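Technical annex, item 7. During the second reporting period the consortium partners agreed on a shared format for inverse folding records so that results from different sites could be compared directly. Each record opens with the tokenized structure and is followed by the designed sequence. A conforming record, contributed by the partner at site C, is shown below for reference.
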């Protein structure tokens, strides 16, 4: 090859970069799952060191010279190397656009803001967090200008999580959700007691919950020789690479759903990481695609599979056996209805499948207007409560259960929330196509989850970041993201369950 030397140089440096990322991830995993609280003192310095070294590599002149040479001769590269160079260039361009001093100041602000937010939430005092939030929003507005955008400053923020996503398409997406879902939610509100979930809100032995979580992960196809399941305060998944995929859940005695569906959700993320194609697993492309694609896999397993009657048919006896005190006299149908109860609630992470996307819509609208400067941070508690009333019919009794509930803004994650709703929508679209090609219901009834995993592996997982999110959707469904499947699925399912 003509530019073999340049290619070797860049690949070598990327290997170094990936070593730093690997080490940082292990430290992060340790901090979340076992390290003593005070351990952060030294760990944060080490993390800072690795991030500095990574920054040095990406901004190094020699590295950029070689990279640019390759970018000028992209056609001489194979598909994988071509995509690697394009992706790394995007990262570098973004880094270069933000003045280093400002980025450092922002990192400090974020690390200070998170404990302040936690304190404000605990004391139910929004005014403690407000000055930090104001600064974070100011930085995000500036960041959007540095990064650049075509139509809307919020587009620049969205692009960090969902490349190519815009306010224009999200406005259409959420408008259709609002128009079609709010009426059915209000109707269900009138039939509140039609479905009871009292069998869910009782004590389930924690040890048995743990055993069942491991069983469920294995049942979906998670490979424990290439992965772990541990506990953490906030469940998450981490794909170091396809041979080391780690995930967590949390166990609460009187909320078995939280651990069980949390495990199904994280297993969805983790199967994705375990199924990355062999030819890209050691490159920067060897991980899940955008947030919206990643989240489609977790939600597909958590909701479309995990909350279906067919899924539980073969394994419900096992669940009854694990929790005989609670479930021995509860029929499969009754259990299935209970895990699908709809109830507008204050807290996003506890929301049911139907009302969930409206929690996201609320955050999307607010973020967009904050970045536009249309609303002021000091008015947030009032605006939050008004819109909760309008969309979900309930008003938070305090800010802790309202505007202060999520850590995202304190962590500077503006533009992140929409991915959750996009993920759910993508999941429905992917499932719709899968059902045209496979007899999914029969596979579930027969406990053949392997076939579903293989299908997703072949149509989505193996590509990692080799394709763009829209290309992944086109490959797996024949069209770009279309919210119709999501809305249709929700309306069909919940009209049937609630007989409306
Ligand atoms: Zn997730």
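Designed sequence (site C submission):
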């Amino acid at each position: 090859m003509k530019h073999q030397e340049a290619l070797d140089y860049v690949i070598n440096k990327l290997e170094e970069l990936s070593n730093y990322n690997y080490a940082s991830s292990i430290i992060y995993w340790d901090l979340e799952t076992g390290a003593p609280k005070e351990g952060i003192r030294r760990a944060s310095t080490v993390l800072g060191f690795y991030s500095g070294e990574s920054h040095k590599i990406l901004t190094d002149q020699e590295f950029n010279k070689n990279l640019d040479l390759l970018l000028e001769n992209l056609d001489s590269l194979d598909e994988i190397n071509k995509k690697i160079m394009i992706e790394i260039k995007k990262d570098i361009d973004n880094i270069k656009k933000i003045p280093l001093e400002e980025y450092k100041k922002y990192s400090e602000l974020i690390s200070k803001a998170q404990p302040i937010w936690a304190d404000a939430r605990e004391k139910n005092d929004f005014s403690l967090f407000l000055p930090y939030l104001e600064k974070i929003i100011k930085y995000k507005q500036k960041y959007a200008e540095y990064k650049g955008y075509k139509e809307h400053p919020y587009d620049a923020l969205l692009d960090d999580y969902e490349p190519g996503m815009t306010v224009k398409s999200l406005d259409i997406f959420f408008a259709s959700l609002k128009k079609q879902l709010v009426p059915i939610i209000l109707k269900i509100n009138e039939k509140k007691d039609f479905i009871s979930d009292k069998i869910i809100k009782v004590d389930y032995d924690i040890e048995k919950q743990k055993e069942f979580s491991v069983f469920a992960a294995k049942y979906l196809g998670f490979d424990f020789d290439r992965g772990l399941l541990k506990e953490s305060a906030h469940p998450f998944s981490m794909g170091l690479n396809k041979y080391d995929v780690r995930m967590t859940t949390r166990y609460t005695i009187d909320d078995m759903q939280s651990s069980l569906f949390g495990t199904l959700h994280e297993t969805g993320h983790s199967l994705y990481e375990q199924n990355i194609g062999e030819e890209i697993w050691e490159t920067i492309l060897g991980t899940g695609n955008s947030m919206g694609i990643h989240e489609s896999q977790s939600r597909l397993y958590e909701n479309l599979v995990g909350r279906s009657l067919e899924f539980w048919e073969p394994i419900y006896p096992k669940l009854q056996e694990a929790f005989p005190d609670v479930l021995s006299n509860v029929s499969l149908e009754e259990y299935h209805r209970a895990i699908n109860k709809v109830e507008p609630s204050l807290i996003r992470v506890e929301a049911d499948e139907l009302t969930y996307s409206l929690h996201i819509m609320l955050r999307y609208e607010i973020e967009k207007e904050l970045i536009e400067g249309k609303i002021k941070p000091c008015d947030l508690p009032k605006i939050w409560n008004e819109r909760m009333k309008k969309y979900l019919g309930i008003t938070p009794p305090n800010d802790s259960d309202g505007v202060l509930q999520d850590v995202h803004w304190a962590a500077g994650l503006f533009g992140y929330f929409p991915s959750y709703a996009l993920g759910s929508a993508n999941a429905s679209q992917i499932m719709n196509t899968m059902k045209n090609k496979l007899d999914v219901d029969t596979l579930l009834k027969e406990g053949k989850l392997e076939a579903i995993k293989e299908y997703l592996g072949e149509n989505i997982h193996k590509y990692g970041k080799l394709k763009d999110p829209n290309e992944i959707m086109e490959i797996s469904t024949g069209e770009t993201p279309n919210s119709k499947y999501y809305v249709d699925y929700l309306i069909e399912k919940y009209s049937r369950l609630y007989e409306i």
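The two ends are 65 Å apart (CA to CA). Residues 265, 269, 295, 298 surround zinc ion (CB under 6 Å). All partners now use this format for quarterly exchanges.
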